[in-house]
Structure formats: C-alpha cells, structure tokens
Design brief:
The structure holds 3 protein chains of 3 kinds. Chain A is mainly α. Helices cover 72% and strands 0% of the residues of chain A. Chain B is mainly alpha-helical. By secondary structure, chain C is α/β, with parallel strands linked by helices. Helices cover 49% and strands 13% of the residues of chain C. Chain C contains 21 helices and 16 strands. The termini of chain C are far apart. In chain C, 48% of the residues are buried. Classes of the chains: A mainly alpha, B mainly alpha, C alpha/beta. Chains in contact: A-B, A-C, B-C. At the B-C interface, helix 5, helix 6, helix 12 and helix 13 of B face helix 1, strand 1, strand 2, helix 4 and helix 12 of C. Chain C: Belongs to the bacterial solute-binding protein 1 family. Chain C: It is found in: Cell envelope.
Amino acid sequence: MILRKLARNKYLYMMFALPFLYFAIFHYVPMFGNIIAFQNYNVVIGFVHSPFVGFEHFKEFLYDPYFWKLVRNTLMLNVYGIVFAFPAPIVLALLLNELRSKRFKRLVQSVAYLPHFLSTVVISGMIVNYLAYDGMLNRFIESMGGEQVQFLSDASWFRTIYIVSDIWQQIGWGTIIYLAALTGVDPQLYEAARMDGANRLKQVLHIAIPCILPVITIMLLLNIGNFMTVGYEKILLLYNGSTYETADVIQTFVYRRGLLGSDLSFASAVGLFQSVVAFVLVVGANRLTKRLGGATLW
Amino acid sequence: MKLGKRKYSAFDLVNALIMLVLIFIMLYPIYYMAIVSISNGSSVARGEIHFYPVRITWKAYEVIFSDAPIVSAYRNTLIYTSLGVAINLFMTSLCAYPLSRREFYGRNLFSLFIVFTMFFDGGIIPRYLVVNGLGMLDTIWAIVVPTAINVFYMVMMRTFFQALPEALHESAHMDGANDLTVFWRVVLPLSAPVMATMTLFYAVSHWNSYFPALIYLNDSHLYPIQIILRNIVIQGDVASQSTEASGVMGTLVVDQNIKYAVVLIAILPILLLYPFLQKYFVKGSMVGSLKG
Amino acid sequence: MNGTKNASWKKIAASTMALTLSAAALLSACSGNNTANNTGNNSSSSAPASNAATSSASSSAAAPAREVTVMRSDTVIQPWLADSPALQEIMKNTNTKITTQAVPESDYDAKKNTLIATNNLPDVLFVKKADIITYANTGVFLNLTPYLDEYAPNLKKRMESDPEVNKLKVDGDLYGFPIMANKENAANVGNFPMIRTDVLEELNLAAPTTFDELYEVLKAFKQAYPDSYPWSFRNGSEYNLKFLAYAFGGGFPIYYEPKEDKFVYGVSSDGFKEAVTFLNKLYKEKLLDPNFAALTVQQWQQNLSSGKSLFFYDNYTFATNFNAALQETDPDAKFDMLPVLADANGNKRNYMDNPSSFNSYVISSKVQNPEEIIKMFDWMYSDEGLKSTNFGVSGEHYTEDNGTITIAQSLLDQFKDKQDPYRAMQSFLGTGLLSFAVMTDDTPMFASSPEQLKVWSDAVKSQKEAGIVVEKPLDPPFTEEERDQLKQLNSKVGTLVTQNVDKFIMGNRPLSELDQFAQELASSGAADIEKIYNDAWARMK
C-alpha cells in the first residue's frame, strides 16, 4: 500500500531529495551543537568530551527574578508588534489596492519599501537624532505650544518608539507579499460584487480579505514563531539605563553577559529555552488554525 | 483591467492624501542622507544640514570610488547575489512543489521536519564546523549553499502552489505527464508573480547579508560590500566602544558624509530591482483572471 | 511540546536520524582532524629544543621564507595593507613572509570568537586582554613561557621595564605577545577637562581650577549663551562617572584605590556621591546636555564642533577636530586643556589608561615550528624592530640623529592633504598600533598632527610626574572560578547600576537614597565583587 503510494509519487520524492539533504546537513547536523547547553563547553575538548552539567545553565536564569522581567519585556514588545506592526502592511496593501491610478500606486510602493534597505545602525542613528530633547520632533511640539518630551530616556516611551520605527521601516516591504496575493484575486469577483451594489468597504471585506486570508494566517503563524525573540541590535543602540525598565530583553541581557567573556553554554541554554517556548506556541497556534479550517504550516 | 468609469469618491481623495504623507515620511530620511553625502564635511559636523545641501562637494564619492576594496566588494556582492538567487529559486521550488501536492505521502511530516528548523538551530559554531567539513571555507559556496532555502519563503511559495486550481494537475496527468513535466510545463509558467517575489526577497537578503561572509571567508578579496559598509557605518559608534579606542587618538570616527554616501551606493542597485520586477506582479493578475 | 509527543515525533526522529548519521560522521571526521592536529603540536610544544636545529637552518638567507598568516582587526581610518614597507622590513630581517588577514573591526569579535570556539585559528591572531584570560586554559593558544629564555631576549627586557605586563600571565604563563608602548615617546592620551578658552576670555572669566569654579563658569556660559548646553558628554553617564568619580576623590564602579591599596566598589565612596550630585545639579540647570543619556558620538561631536557645547571632559585628542571645524567660521574659537580640577577638599587626581594597550598577538597551538614566529616577534621588540614597525624604512621614511627620530618631510608632504594625514601615512607604511607593531611609538603622530597635541601630551606628562595623574592599574589575574563568578555578579550588579545612575542624575530618584542604593548593590553582589578583586590582588602581591 505504502509502496504503491511511494511509487506513484516517485518524481515528487526525486524533487524533494535535494532539499531534504540540505535541511539534514545544514540544519539538523548543527542542531547537535545544542548539547553544549547542558555542558561547560571547552573548545579544545570539543562537543563530545566537555563535562556535562545538566540543567545548571537553565537554572541559573530561570531562578533569577530579573529574568522574568526580561521575559515580560520581550513578550510585551512582541504583543505590541502583533497588534500594531503586523496589521499595518495589510492595511497599506488594501489601501494601495484601492488606488485608482496604477502609476501612483507603483510610485507609492516603490517609495514605501525604501526604508527596509537601511541598516539598523543607520535607522537608530536617525531615531536618536529626530527624538532628541532638542531634536526635530520636540522642536515641532514646542512650536505647537507643547512641552518638550524626553523620548529617549523615558521608559514609558520606549515600546512606542520601537514599534513605530519598526512599522516605518517594514510597512512597505511587508505589503509586497500581500499585494502579490491580491493580484491573484479574480477581477470578475469584483465585477459581480459591484453588480450586486456592494460598496468599496464591502468589496474589501468580502472579497479582498478572504482571498488573502491564507497568506495572512501563514504570516501570523510565522510571526508567533518569533515571539520570544526581538531584533535586539536596535535595542542595543537605543536603550540606556533609564529605559531598561521596558527595553531590556532576553537577548540584550545575554549580549551584555557575552561581553564579559564569551559564555557559549549559557547563551546556548537561553537560546534553547526561547526555541522551545516559540515552538510550543506555534504548534498550538497551528492546531488552532487547523481546527478552524484555515491555512497551516504543516 | 476594465475598471469602468467610476467617480472619484471622498475615500479616493483621503486615500491619495494618506499616500502622499506616506511618501514624504518614507522619502525624507533617504533624501536627508543624500544631501548630507554631498555637503561640506564641517557643515555636517556642525549639524547645519536640514532640507538642502550646504556647499556641495562630491568629495565623499571620489574618496569611495578611488578605494579599490569597495569596487571589488561591489563585484563580489553582484556575483553572490545572482548565483545565490539562482540556487535559492531552484532549491526552494524543488522543496515547495512536492509539499504543495496533496497526494505527496508524508507531506505533513516533511513540512514539520522543515518548519522545525525555524525554531531550533545549533548556532554558529556547529554550522561553521559543517561548512568547514565540506571544504567550503574561503569559497563562494560557503556564502550561497548554507542559505539555499529560507523556510519562511518556502512556505510562501508552497502556499502559492497550493492555491493553483487542482484541475490543472488532473488534466495534465490525464495527458500522461509526470510530476516533473507538470511542474516544468504547467506550474512554473503560471508562477511568475511568486517567482518575482521570491527573486526580490532572496536577492535582497543576499544583498544585505554580511555574516556568512564574515565568518566563512578569510580572504578579504572575497568580501561583499556589506562588510565594508558595516565597518564604515559602525566604526566609532556606540555599539563598538572598541578595542583600542581608549588609548588612541580620538579621530577614529568616520565622517558622516562618507558614511551616508556609502549607504546610498550600497542600496542603489538593489533598489532598481524592484520596478523591474513589478511588471511580473501585474502579470500575476492575468493568471487570476485565467483561473475563473 | 508534551501535547505533540505522539507517533509523528518518533517517526521524525527515526527518519532524520538515518540521514543525519551520515552527515554526523562527516562532522566527527573534521573534529577528529582537530584532535590529530592537537596531538601533533603538543609534542612540538613540549619539546621546543628538538626543533632548534631546523629553525636555525631556516634563518640563513638561503632558506625559503617562513610564511605566517596574521589576522587582526582592521579600521576604516587606517586600513592594514599587504606588502607594506613595514612588512617588507620584517621579511628582510627575519625571513618571515606575513600574509595579512584584515577583518573589519566592527565585527572582529564575532569572527575571532568563532575561530577560537572551533579551534581554527590562523597562525597568529590579534586578541584583547580579556581573551587571553578567558581562553588560555582551553589550550588553543601556544604557551610562550618555555620559549622565552632561548628565543625572546628582547621581549624579556621590555617586560622587565613594565611589570604591569605580568598581569597578563595566566597561572604564571605568558600566552601572547603583548602590545606595549615606548613610554618615552608615547602620547599621554586620556580623559581631561577641555574648555573653550576664547569664551572664557570673551566673558572675562578666569580658568576654573576646582569643580565648584567649573560650575560657576558653566553657569556664566549658559547665561551668555542661553541656547547652549555648556557641557556635553558621550557614551552615557557610566562611562563618564568612571573618571569623574575618581577625580572627585572616589571611584566607579570597581576601581583601585591607591590611598587604601585595595580595590573598592566605588558606589559607596563619597567621591561617587559628590560626582552624581554635581551632575544632578548641572542637569537641573541645563548646564549639562539634557540628552546626555542617549547622545551618540556623532551628536556629541556636533555639539562641540558647532559651539553648542563649550566644555568636555574626555579624550583630549578630539579637540583638534573640534578646533578645526570651529575655526572655519570663527578663527578665534579654541578648545584648550585645563589642569586637573580640585575636588571639595582641594585634592586633585585623574586617572588615565596605561599607554600600552596590552592587547596581544597569540600563536595558534597547532602551529609547527613556532620558534621561527617567536623569533620574528622578538625582533619586533628590539630597537631596530621598533623603528621598522613604527617609522618604516631608515633613510627613506625617517632619519635618526643622536637618538632623535625625524620623519622625512617628503613623506609628510605626501599625505598632508588627506583627511587624516597621520592615519593615511601609517596605513601606507603599515606601521603603528593599528597595523602590525608590538612596541608602539607615537613620534609619527606628533610629527603629522597639530602642535597643540604635543603641548597637551606634555601637560599630562608633567602632571603625571607630579603624581596628580595616575595610570590605572590592570585588573589582577583571576582564577577560572573567580571569572565565572564575576561574570554572573557583574551582569547582575551592572544591570542595577545602569538602571539607577541616570535616575539619580535626572532627579527621578532622590539623591538622599544614594546610601541606600550603595547598600542595595552591596547586598546584590558588589561586596562579593570587591572581595574577589582583593583576594586576587593579595595573591599577586
């Protein structure tokens, strides 16, 4: 029975062989390296012979009350990300799709994806410039009669700054995938809806969104997979003592420890912890969408 | 596309306005870098540049293009990107197509096998040992092979293949075609939009990538532009309060106009790729109409 | 994950195992290689004498040159080039051909750590002080001690003249060739008070000599220029408190207190509290840049180059850049150095880093016949080697008269129009700290920089001789266990410190809680840090 199935699919298996090998060699073999999370890794002795210490590295951070603050900050940034940054490109894609002039649409698209190409260092430099106490934004606030704000050294502003700059940088780029999906929408569906007297909003709600829903679901699932990680390079460049309260996340903490002497085993343990949590979340979310009949990752 | 002659509504107006604001917000920083890169260095240092260049000079660009490493790094990046994208597209579609077929036995398991790698990876060191073990160090293969398939993009491609009507496959199989020919003759020609998207995504990721090159290449003649760019942009910045800075003359900081000139030069070619690929996105809508 | 622990999991495991086994074999093959290499070099390092014959043969001119790959970090300002005159001199004198592997400084640590962690070092690798301590016990670096007597007489002589270098030893063994400064000709770079003397004159103010007077001066500056923030600093408050707290008679964070001859976690010291109180006062009256916590180096330079800020307490060599930018619009504008300021008790003190960087070049323990490389380095420590690796070719790039080095005018002229003449020249020659030198000499820097630099350096030198300026001692060597503890303690205490220092300065936490803060730190690990330092210090003595 199985053999017959295999035989029928033989060309598919032939195709799949190379990618399978690729994942085995470049992803699964290195995965054995995670073993150092349970060791005191020594370079010269190697993976096989380094002394095992069990869960000692895990205990070290799991029992640290500060660690849970880091978890909270990491999660909060991601929740904000899902709530605000994730839908932004979808909305923009839908708005772009509604633009009447194709030329204008292309122009906006081409311009909106520019910031994606700027490196984190450049972006952070700009943020610091614009949000400084005497920076452009504060000068604007002052001219409107408001009071200057210490954006960069006030912990309550940090998440907003992080998310807004993220949206700014990624919104245009994010639309590409949704616009590609929107081009797949059958124009006749719109035609039919218009005949039925549906207005623009209804057309979007009942045609455009359902058509790109599988893409949205997949993107959301993939996003959840990153729930325990944060683009920490930007945080490193933006945070300071007075914003640690909200800005210090797991990776920045590990980074600071790493600076004091490379500690591969500890970093590996934290990484493994993050992976497990993320994986559990994705498995759960994937089950949920499967039950709801939506697109799934596997 | 026959959109008919509808009236412009208030919504269209507001929408257009939003887009104009967006254009300004997105464009200004790039514009700002451009004017800084052609302004006089001291004026930049005094922070005098806001809306237009001051005492225009092309010196920054002259400095950059007289620098041999930058030119050769540019060429390297072009090679890595084109070869890399070719490998990416080949491998990703080999992976995505079988996984998109409902009759592919073990499909869920294989998908999980692959998605799993998004969350668990062994880190830099074991991967380095693998690349070293395969004899790829200091060769172009170390740059393009270990990143052959991005799971994220593979899933996107698979979702696209899945959305193609099942009838296409059935009729082709009826004509006696095997999976390979179906993929090559039927599926690929319909995949222009997703291939264009993937080309863009992969090209950009190769263009922006520096880490594999940094780790796997020892010969600086093989360095891509991003490594050089990072060195210029980061040096003297907060992230690298570095090695010898404390005991050394304070002049280690690179002039800002050179920094920005390099940033612009490094992103320009890849920016040009988008309008070029855009027409394939439009073709995608044709596919949509064929389907119905 | 428990929820999904079902049959599919086992299937994955089974199917992947089969395939990965083959690849795993591959991996173990390559690590097997490593161990084979290791045993090979162990035998060579345990018996250096047995190789003596081969190395003496290779030093004869007829023998083919020994090829040595050297990897170091590379700056944009002074790119490290292959086949530079200095490298050719090394070749001529030691028959060693250097292959340069220049890795961008911005990412050097990532590269270096990967190579060390995979035991894939080039023949010679540039590392920082801390790396030697962290990795010496792993055995990736060649232990140089057995070779010193026979092959490195020059290095030994240099080490005797600067005993600080002994702190780089791990368990009594030397693992790297330390980069040291020729102190007679070293620029005494450090953080010192620099003020706009033209503004002082304009407002008819006397140069401040104490921190209290400095406060009055800054206040007068602010009055005359309400839009200015008289004092601006970079890198955040912790970086600045390190030397400010010391100047106020205390220290920060853990530092050596010469008065008590021991290490102190300075947050409890009066000097630290006074320094924070002082900064708080300046912040409240907007005499300190309100952006201080988040200021980038770029913005800081902007402030000082544009006249927005009129005072800084930092690396004084920056002032040459600021002066050049300022004088384009105002020829009289000028930053000049103030003598070290007195604290409330009238005491003056200021620390500076040792002019020797004490970073090192290590040799991979896998290298065959390391004696040849050791001899090459030893030559670089000799007077002749020092000159070649700092000034270039004698007669062509410099001349020597009675021990005084004069850089050739033709060479200086060649680079005088460059943006940074000194670095451009050094890059061309392949000389100095940022190229490949183990004894550094700053003569070329003075020759190709504005004259003020020499004046300031001499001012520091005379204050050093008067005992006001102190070279900060290196940390005492720690045991492996102590290092592990310090790693944990420092990240814990450091986080607390960072979170609070800015709050005190900005007034978000009342200054009256400074004592309480010191106690919080002590109980969360600062006391342990202090103890570890002092134990290690006692062992040293």
